Hints:
The protein has 150 residues and is an alpha+beta fold. It is built from five helices and nine strands.
Amino acid sequence: MKLKIGDQVPDFEAKDQNGNLIKLSDYKGKKIVLFFYPKDDTPGCTAEACNLRDNYSALQSKGYEVIGVSSDDEKSHQKFISKFELPFTLISDPDKKVHDIFGTWGEKSTFGRKYMGTIRTTFIIDGEGKIEDVIEKVDTKEHTSQILSD
């Protein structure tokens, strides 16, 4: 299943970097930038997270909460946040439940080698839990401008 613009997002729950259970419904009334990325502390994912970090106040001024999702564990997220001073929540999704809801876990190919992994995608969710936009071709170094270009 791949969620698309106009779809209502099911009220999922998952643990953040500190082991706290968070739910989509906790953010009712707030717009969310929900970005799925492959792996903590890798070049592309670091560029994306740091671009969002560097523009975090601009995103917040437009009413956005920023939440990242990867299959990394909580300890990995804590290190990633600490190393790059990330001001937003990271969801740990090792069992791929959140990935399955959004359709962001699938077959990838690098240098002809096929494998399963996170398909880098960002979902813009409105305050009522509906998808406003889906960014599938994420520019990791300029991601905030893609989000704010509406």
